[in-house]
Every structure is written in structure tokens, then in C-alpha cells.
Design goal:
The complex is a heterodimer of chains A (263) and B (368).
Chain A (H helix, E strand, L loop, with lengths): L6 E10 L2 E11 L4 E6 L5 H8 L7 E6 L2 E2 L9 H4 L2 E4 L11 H12 L4 H14 L16 H12 L6 E5 L7 H17 L3 E5 L3 H7 L2 E6 L2 E6 L1 H5 L4 H8 L1 H17 L1
Parallel strand pairs in A: 3-8, 3-9, 6-7, 7-8
Antiparallel strand pairs in A: 1-2, 1-4, 4-5, 9-10
Chain B lengths: L3 E6 L2 E8 L4 H12 L7 E10 L1 H13 L4 E3 L3 H12 L13 H39 L6 H11 L4 H24 L6 H40 L2 H8 L3 H40 L3 H11 L2 H27 L5 H32 L4
Helix pairs in contact in B: 2-3, 4-9, 5-9, 6-7, 6-9, 7-9, 7-10, 7-11, 7-12, 9-11, 11-12
The chains are: A alpha/beta (263), B alpha/beta (368).
Amino acid sequence: MAEDPVIRVRGLVNRFGSQTVHDGLDLDVMPGEILGVVGGSGTGKSVLMRSIIGLQTPAEGEIEVLGQPVTGGETTQDKDLTRQWGVLFQGGALFSGLTVAENIEVPLREYFDLSNQLMDEIAAYKVAMVGLPPEAGPKYPAELSGGMKKRAALARALALDPKLLFLDEPTAGLDPIAADGFDTLIRTLAETMRLTVFLITHDLDTLHAICDRVAVIAEKRIIATGSVAELSRFDHPWVQDYFAGPRGRAAAIARHHAPLEIG
Amino acid sequence: MPVLAIGLADGVLAFRGRLTIARLSETERQLHELLAPVPGPLLIDLSGVTRIDTVGSWMVHRLLRERPGSRLSGASADAERLLAEVAAADRPCDMRPVQQPFWARELGRLGLYVITFWQSILALLDFIGLTIISAVRAVASGRGVRWQAVGAQMEQVGVNALGIIGLMSFLIGIVLAQQGAVQLRAFGAEMFVINLVGRATFRELGILLTAIMVAGRSASAFAAQIGSMKLAEEVDAMRTIGLDPIEVLVLPRTIALILMMPLLAFYASLMAILGGGLFTWVDLGIPPATFVQRLREVVPMSDFWIGMSKAPVFGAIIAIIGCHQGFQVTGNAESVGQRTTQAVVEAIFMVIVLDAIFAVFFTALGLD
């Protein structure tokens, strides 16, 4: 791979009080790939994401995103950088006082001086692209189901056609059918819009379905990266339990058999 | 070289450079000016486009749609893919909620307000009844009152409030004495400052100010505590285990406030007297001994008892309103905030309404 990584993390250290969450964590995310980050509860997956997008100032370490250094709080003021990424938070984090359409238009309004008509058109096709029904535009977040909220939040994250998409547990709280639908949507959008995706998940089906590469956080570092197949042969107790446990096997089998049933 | 160049010649519209969202505001204006005098179909040449995103594709798609018969040439594989994607996503979509005219909206809001006001009064009466039934049931069943919880609440609503209530009352005492002195000095009747401070404090201000402070401090706390328990389904969990949430949550808080309010009101009155006394000593030169003696002469015991008799009633209503609003929380965290605000507003309002009723009542009894 001759290309420069889109995200480059070196020697990241995060501490909360006396508790060290990350200790010398290294990670590269290459352009165009979908990287899944897995790890047990409390291993600092979300903290890693928050460090990369500048919501958390690390104690030590270097982070570069799209070639620019990220150093905590000031980064979120750097509009050239924030314009190029979209973030989907776990609960959606839609602005509750705005409709879905207005939520999608927030980033457009912030960065560009567009006619209202064009902004409405952009919001409308984004609503369609994430698979929401046309009636969803004027609705407020409180009127949406969990799955629709996630889709609307994804539409907002994609409003500026970002190069880089961060997803924090996109399928958490969705029923299996909605989760499958969301996985497919992310894969399709990533392909059509040539996105690089940084994805935190607990969902083994998601890992199998859409991730090009998976990074495992344990012992305060990334202990392994590789495809799901490679990781299931990786000799570490947590990784083994995770991929070779009953759920891991079920997800692998489902993945294996899916094409047979369709074809 | 510009990031994006747009050229129009002989019905051929050529884009060169990056057709992306970054330059979109200018692109939109440029296109509008360029194309206004040229009606009819176009040949759109995308061969010079180095980068395109969905927004750029949308602009192209829009041109194709607005000018039937237009054609495309030189589109890269990327552009073809994105164009297909936005074309598939092109469908009518509602954008704004339906807006009613101003007068209908405001009239509707007024009506709704009246209805909710009436309903909230009924709901509150309902809740007071429920609390009394729960109390009777708890005692009748032999379970009794949870005194440990009552003790914990008494510390929260009473002991922990001593600092702020004391300071507030002390300052109000000073202000009252000072304002009174300014007016009464005109008549050479400075001594009457003691009447003013003593009577006003014991009968009205001590208890009223305490009740308002407690409403702000504890009604909000009760609403927020019970509201978040409701969100976390703790209240439902209690019900499934067979605990009565009113007995567990509302009774201890109500009893704690009923017991603490008279003590707090008495303490507040003393602090206000202290402030007033200090001011009259320093400013008017009335020595403390004279102040106390005069106080005993002019403040009848009935003032004290009237003040104290209101306290438990205010305590009960504040606690019940706080808890009631807590139980009204539904859905999300925003509702906790709303209900907390509502609890404070309603509690202060009810305290003042009750105080007015008490004033009329005691006057009718001839206790003035």
C-alpha cells in the first residue's frame, strides 16, 4: 500500500484520573477501506473515536487525519478538517428542535451559501439515499423509530459528501432486520461515495458483512488487525472467545451460507 | 486555473475541474447566469471533470431533468455511478411541517393552555388523593412509614438547606429594616421598624420565603429524581416487585417536608430577626436588649402560630407537586427538564395561592 493512511494514530495515551484507557495505541486506516474496531466493554473504543475526531484531548500521542494533526479541542474549530468527515453518534444525536430535513441542512448552511431550493433538493435526495420514506423530511426526531433516527443521522453525517465517515455502534439497538438493512446501506454508500469508514461495533454480523479489516482493542492497545478470517486464527484469549464463541460461529456460518440461499 | 471552469458554446455546456460541494455556491450562481438566456436542450460535457461528488452529480442531474432532450458526454465511471445514484434518489419529498395561519395557531395554543391548566389541577388533586390512600394503606397494613428514607430526605431538604435559607433570610431582614427605617424616620417613628420586622417576619415573610426557596430547591430535586427513575424504568421495576412507588418515593419525601418546613420557617424567621436587629442596632442605635423587649411587646403569639401552622401545608404541597411532576416524565431526558421547571413554577404558584387563602381565612377568624 503506497498510499498514505487517512487516519494515523501513534503512541496514543488516554487517562481518566488514575485509570489508563489507552497506553501507546497505534492505528492506521487506509483510504477507501471499512475498518471495524472491536473490543470488550470499557476498552476505550468510543474514547479512541472521540480522540480521533478531537472531542477528547489525549494525554500523549500523535493523531493525523487526512494529513492534518488533530490535537483535541481546537480541531473541532478547524472547518477545513471537520468539513471532510461525518460522524454518526450512537444515539443518532439529531438536533431535537429541528426536523429531519433541517438537521440535514445544518452542515450545508454552516459551510455554504446556497439557495434554499437547492438545499431542499440536496436534503431530499440524501433522505432518499439513506432509505427514508419521503414523509420523514418534516418529522421531528422524537417522532422517528430507532432505525429511522439512525438513517436520518447518517444522512446528516453524509450531508457534505465527506471523505471519511465515523460510525459509533451503528446497529446497536436495532432489530436484526433493520440492522441488516443498515449494514447493506453503509456498504452501498461507502462504495458509491468512495468513503473511508471507521466503525465501532459489537455486532459480529456487521463485521462479517461490511468490514474490510478489523482492529481489536485489548490490553490498552490495538493487539491485532486483519480480516475476520485472519483474526479468527489469532492466538489471544479474548479474540478467540470473541470470534470462536457461539455467536461468532453463528455469524460466520450465516455469512458463509447467505450466497447459497440467494444463488 | 480555477478549481472549476464552466464554459457554454453552441449548446454545449462543459465543466472542467472539480465538480464538488466545495465550490457549489458559486457554481449555482454561475450556471444560473450562463443558462438564463439559452433555453432548450444542452449537451453536457463532463470529460474535463477531475472529481465529482453527489452534490455535483445532483447539479448535472437537475440540468438533465429541467431540459428534456439534454444529453451527457464524457462522463467518467465515477460520474456515471453517482448520477445513477442521485437519479434513483430523485423523488418528491416533504420538507416542512404543515404550518397553520398565525391566528389559528395562537388561538389553538391559548385553548390548549386553558385545558392543560384545568387538567393539571385535576391531576394534582388526583395525586394528592393517591398519596393519602397510600399513606393510609401503609399504616393499615402494618408496614408503617419508611422512617429511614424520611430521615435521609429530611437531611436533604432541611439540613442541607440551612446555609442558603439562613443567608437569604438574614439579608431580607436587613433590607426590610433598612427600607422601613427610611420611611418611618420621616415620622420620627424609627421604633416601629421593630414592629415591621417582627410581625412581617413571623407571620408572612419567614414562611413564604422559605417555602419559595424550598420549592426551587426541593420540588425540582424531587421531580428530577423521580423523573430519571421513571426513565430508567426503576418505577416500573418497583411495581413488578410489588412495591408501591407512591409509598416508597412520595410518602417519605412528603413526610420529610411536612416535618422540616416548620423548623426551616422558624429558623428563617430567627435569621431575619437577627438581620433586622443587627441593622437597627448599627444604624438606628437601638441596643439588642431594647430590640428584644420591644419585639416581645409588639409581636403577638398568634403571629408565630399562624406562620407555623402554614408551614406543614406548604411543605406537603411542595413535596406532592414535585413528586407528581416527576411521575409525569415520559420518553426522553428533555421531558425531565420540562417537568422540573413545571414543578418549580407550579409549587411556587400554589404556595402563593395557599398563602392568600390563609390570609383571608385568618382575617375571617379575627386574627389580625
